[in-house]
């Protein structure tokens, strides 16, 4: 198995850890990309992409990394003054104001505080391919908790909630807006709806090996059929089990449907590591970076049943020690981004003017980083002169 691409001087340890992932940690196919001061300093790929070599152009399903792209669309509108994050959702989406949600704020949607972390109403097969159906269901649903009083990871509903606000404000679908304002101008390998002619570039997802888990989420989902965890896992229209299908890749699914690679993830966050602009593309004002990176909700997560920390639409560092369970995410405190189920990640670290992306086809457990991704993140921080203390990185 041959690793291809390059590492700039000083980042050789990233390549060493990438190679070690294949040799010792069970990596099958993957890519990693890093930018510093806007320049690519790491661009590596290798392994198997479903019976063929993983190439420079291979893409794969990046799962909840998609939430970062969706959140960015909302922040672009906020930076332009077209969306008030402190306004009630009903200002933009009047039908949402039902069953105790009349005072829900836009920031509650972004901060996983809306109380809509799962769907009570039984969903038909393929429901999550149907945007109108899902947004109608969520608009009329009673929340699981009073919005704004607690948080719980909206794993499969986040994209409809935030994406519908984007649609109401702009008149464009979420995918259209993302392509027009972000992926097109930046030239990203990142799609919220994958064109059919790009399907041959896809490395299919390999689910994690079955086995015992200590995850409180999975314990609740499998032992308490009336829990919010069970509803999320079992009442989703079958999307998760059909995620390698052409229909899933073509669907607009702003929570977990994005198709990309490490280059696409790192370059999505590159402008955000540089104050909001890159190469003449002005995504957001610099003041919005502070809003995007600040912790908005933290503490006990009512969905994941453990401690989490969220900015408005992005994950923040979480120093839980169980990296191999896929729960931890050791980053610098200024960093913000999003991991994807099984271990992919994209993030910006503005203090270092660095962005990072990692995508792979063989999933690990959990919704955060596992040892493969964290080893690469750690190597980058070491190359930048950071030191590890506890679960985070500091200068």
From TrEMBL:
Pfam families: Beta-lactamase. Gene3D superfamilies: DD-peptidase/beta-lactamase superfamily (3.40.710.10). It comes from the Bacteria. Residues 18-366 form the Beta-lactamase-related domain. Transmembrane segments: none annotated. PANTHER family: BETA-LACTAMASE-RELATED (PTHR43319), BETA-LACTAMASE-RELATED DOMAIN-CONTAINING PROTEIN (PTHR43319:SF3). This is CubicO group peptidase (Beta-lactamase class C family).
């Amino acid at each position: 198995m041959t690793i291809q691409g390059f590492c700039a001087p000083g980042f050789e340890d990233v390549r060493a850890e990438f190679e070690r992932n294949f040799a010792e940690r069970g990596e099958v196919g993957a890519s990693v990309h890093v930018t510093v001061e806007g320049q690519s300093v790491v661009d590596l790929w290798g392994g198997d992409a479903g019976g063929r070599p993983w190439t420079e152009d291979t893409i794969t399903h990046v799962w909840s990394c998609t939430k970062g792209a969706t959140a960015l669309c909302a922040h672009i509108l906020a930076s332009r003054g077209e969306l008030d994050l402190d306004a009630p959702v009903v200002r933009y989406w009047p039908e949402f104001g039902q069953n105790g949600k009349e005072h829900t704020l836009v920031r509650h949607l972004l901060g996983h505080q809306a109380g809509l972390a799962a769907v009570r109403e039984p969903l038909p097969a393929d429901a999550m391919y149907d945007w109108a159906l899902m947004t109608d269901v969520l608009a009329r649903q009673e929340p699981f908790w009073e919005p704004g009083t607690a948080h719980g990871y909206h794993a499969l509903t986040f994209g409809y909630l935030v994406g519908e606000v984007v649609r109401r404000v702009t008149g464009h679908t979420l995918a259209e807006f993302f392509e027009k304002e972000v992926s097109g101008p930046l030239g990203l390998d990142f799609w919220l709806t994958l064109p059919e002619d790009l399907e041959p570039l896809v490395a299919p997802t390999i689910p994690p090996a079955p086995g015992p888990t200590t995850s409180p989420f999975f314990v609740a989902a499998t032992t308490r059929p009336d829990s919010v965890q069970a509803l999320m896992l079992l009442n989703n229209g079958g999307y998760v089990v059909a995620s390698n299908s052409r229909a899933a890749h073509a669907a607009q699914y702003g929570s977990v449907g994005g198709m990309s690679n490490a280059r696409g993830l790192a370059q999505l966050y590159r402008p955000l590591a540089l104050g909001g602009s890159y190469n003449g593309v002005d995504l957001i004002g610099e003041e919005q970076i502070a809003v995007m990176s600040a912790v908005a909700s933290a503490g006990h997560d009512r969905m994941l049943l453990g401690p989490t920390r969220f900015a408005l639409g992005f994950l923040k560092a979480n120093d839980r020690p169980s990296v191999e369970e896929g729960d931890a995410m050791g980053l610098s405190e200024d960093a913000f981004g999003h991991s994807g189920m099984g271990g992919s990640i994209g993030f910006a670290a503005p203090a270092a003017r660095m962005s990072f992306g990692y995508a792979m086809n063989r999933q690990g457990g959990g919704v955060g980083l596992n040892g493969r991704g964290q080893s690469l993140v750690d190597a980058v921080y070491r190359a930048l002169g950071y030191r590890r203390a506890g679960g985070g990185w500091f200068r």
